[in-house]
Amino acid sequence: xxxxxxxxxTAVRDAARRYAQERLAPGxxxxxxxxxxxxxxxxxxAELGLMGVNVPxxxxxxxxxxxxxxxxxxxxxxxxxxxxxxxxxxxxxxxLICKAGSEEQKKRYVPHLTSGEYMAGAFALSEPQAGSxxxxxxxxxxxxxxxxxxxxxKQWITSGAYAGVMVVWARTSREPGAKGISCFLVEGxxxxxxxxxxxxxxxxxxxxxxxxxxEDCEIPEENLMGQVGEGFKWAMVALDGxxxxxxxxxxxxxxxxxxxxxxxxxxxxxxxxxIGNFQGVSFKLADMKTELDAxxxxxxxxxxxxxxxxxxxxxxxxxxxxxxxxxxxxxSEAVQIHGGYGYVDEFPVERHxxxxxxxxxxxxxxxxxxxxIAREILREGAR
Length: 383
Ligand code: CAA
Description:
52% helix, Butyryl-Coa Dehydrogenase, subunit A, domain 1, Butyryl-CoA Dehydrogenase, subunit A, domain 3
């Protein structure tokens, strides 16, 4: 067993860390306040290979693997969590097209995502009445001649207003449940694809989250990805990998909060000494660090399994569950350590608290992660 990242993983992590600390972190507060989508930053990150960390070099990716991706995601999230979620969804789309797409689809779309020519990719699965249970989706795709015609509504779509290409799921049969769902590639700006008003979110305010409506939205027949009826499986495959990304994002937010709380505990004095000298404060730091490190081990194990081509569904859900909940505990304690200063935006921890909150919700709630983990234990055994 080797806990040391290899040369490539170290290089990707260090490049992401440098970029996050020098370029992302200084502007994170202003982008959050003004809800500014990080356009220039995303292009620069593409130049660093961060829009396709685990995408083959043949399609413009870094080909650096999932462990490198997890390490990079944590660094970017520590600098700016809004930019990190945008990066996460773009990487997830690029990887999914590489897995499920035809050669033509890979050549046509993936290099645009990895190069930053497309500002982002989007993953349009959830609907107003189908979040935790995407098999209940209602969006329908009908075959008319050599076109597919999409009608329906999607909800909470990250980067929906900026995506050059979206992976969109729709029913292609009246059969209920997962079987009748297929997967399509829809280019941003396609006629009949209507982008709604951006959501006013609690956190991740510099990321873009919109509802989408498809009104007789025609796409060429070759934009079906995979086979008819295969879409649900591809959604699950993509989410397994995506959950490693969100675990890593949560970790980054938690780590940034721990670093801020540590600096504050050394600097702030009460009763004549730095508050870090009090056990009530220092034990909080100890618990935060221990939980975040445990979460990182879970995330890296899931990433390693994925990279090895071994099953990792349960491990990805365990990482996402534990990391997102540990991050939420960490940000809450960081605010507590800051006292009144933790509740105002002069210090970063109130933003970290707002940003961390969604990590137990998107890409599958904590309850869905428990369901996935429990099912796998009951099916495969507890080892
Ligand atoms: N890999 C491959 N195939 C899988 C799979 C996996 N991990 N999980 C399920 N499948 C397959 C099953 O084998 C089954 O196929 P067969 O019938 O051929 O055997 C089919 O998919 C249906 O599986 P289930 O019966 O298990 O499906 P279910 O309806 O019970 O749902 C679920 C399972 C895990 C609860 C799933 O619905 C789920 O993950 N829900 C949460 C959805 C989610 O995470 N949404 C996030 C939205 S995207 C987002 O948040 C992005 C963002 O903005 C940041």
